[in-house]
Amino acid sequence: MVTLRAVGRQAGMPTYEYRCNNCGHELEAFQKITEAALTLCPQCSQDKLERLISGGNFVLKGGGWASDNYGTPKRPPKTDGQQADKMDKAHKKSAEDAKKAAETKGKPAA
Ligand SMILES: [Zn+2]
Fold it and tell me: How many structural domains is the chain composed of?
């Protein structure tokens, strides 16, 4: 059983990436995990779509490409980038707060 909660993206709707084995067309789809995988390529109308898993922690059966693709984004991230930016800022803020708190606490009352 895979827990999607650990992924930390928008709740509920994971993004699935598909790539067509026939024409190489790539697309993203928001789907519930319970929904059936897409197979029909909108580009060439062939039944050749293969689902790639993005943003997940789980390993695809028969893996291999997963570790190869990981960390080498093929295209500029859009919404993902914004999210990461937001998260980064949130991180920095809490880190600063923690630092301030530590400083205030740690200063000798001279
Ligand atoms: Zn295609």
Answer: 2
